[in-house]
Write a structure and sequence with these properties.
This protein is mainly alpha-helical and 57 residues long. The longest helix is centred in the C-terminal third of the chain and has 28 residues.
Length: 57
């Protein structure tokens, strides 16, 4: 969970720097890529954890 939150923070910081600094648009793109990769990572962990803790009746 901490890796997920760390990557979210990194993506936000890169996006802010990419927008604020003239000529560093590539940082915004990198921030968006990191954000998308982090969301995919979080979704796969959530899906995998849900299957493992299923109760049998």
């Amino acid at each position: 969970m901490s890796l997920f939150l760390l990557l979210i923070i990194v993506a936000i910081v890169l996006g802010i720097i990419g927008v604020a600094a003239h000529g560093l648009f590539y940082l915004l793109i990198i921030g968006v890529v990191v954000l998308v990769a982090d969301l995919v990572y979080g979704a796969t962990r959530l899906r995998r954890r849900g299957k493992r803790h299923r109760l049998l009746r």
